[in-house]
Hints:
This is Rhomboid family intramembrane serine protease GlpG. This protein is mainly α.
Amino acid sequence: MHKFAELNSAQAAQLFAGYCVALGLDVSAVVLRADLAELYAAEQQLAQVEQEFAQFLQQPGHSRYQAAAWQLSQPVKAGSDTALVQFDMRRVWQQAPLTVLLFVLCLLVYGWQQLDWRSSSGWLQLTNPAELWRWFTPMLLHFSLTHLVFNLAWWCYLGSRFEQRLGAGLLLNLTLSVALISNAAQYFMVNPHFGGLSGVVYGLFGYFWIAGRLNPAQGLHISSGLIGFMLLWLMLGFFDVLWVSMANWAHLGGLLAGMAWAWLLRNRPGHKPREISATDTDT
Length: 283
C-alpha cells in the first residue's frame, strides 16, 4: 500500500475511501486524529486513485460520494434470512478461520463450565505449572456471560482484521506468545485462579495501537476513542474501583507483549483482505 495523501478531516478521508471501495479500488483511510487522516492505495491502482482524488478535492460535496457511502451501508440482498446468515458465516470463515476457531473453542469451553465447573477449571487453570498446556489454557475460561461476550466481541473485531492483513500463522504466534506472557504475569503477581481472553485482546490492542503509528500501511489501526477506553479500563482495574474482579497483570502483560510484536513487525507489509466471490460461497 502506498500513502498518497493526507486530509485534515477524518470524515472526508473515510468518505473518499468508501467511495473508492465502491468502485472496486483498494483504498484505506488511517485516522490519526479527528483533524488528520492518511490515505493509502494499492500501487497498481495509484494512477486511477489519484485521478479520483483530484475530482474529490474539486467537488467533495458531490452526491456520488454520499451515494457510495449509502450503498456500502446497505445489507446484502439474499433470497432468505437463512441464506444471508450462511453467506456471512462462510465469508468470515474463509477470511479469518483462526479467529472463528478460537471463538468456537471459547464457546465450547464455556458450555463445559456450565455443565461441570470443577472439571473444566481443574483442567484449564494454571494450578499446576509443570503441566505446560496450563500456561495457555486460562485464555479459554470465562466466568460469566458478560465476560465471555465482551472478550469475544473484541477478539472478533481485532483478531479478524489482524488475520486478514497478516495471516493466520502470525495471528497464531501472537496469540500463543501473548497468552503465555499475560498468564505468567498474572500467575506470578497474584495467583493461578484467573481466566479469560482479555490478555490476548489487550495484546492485539497494543499491536494495533503501535502498528497504526509505526506502519500504518499494514492497515491495522484503532481510533483514539477506543485507545482511551482500553487504557482507562486498564487503569480502573488496577485502582480496583470496578464492580468486577479483573486479571489486571494479565492485561498489562498482554498489552506490553502486543506492543513488542508491533515493533518487531514494524517493517512488514500488510496485504489486502481476500475478496470472496459468489462461487466461493456456493455449495
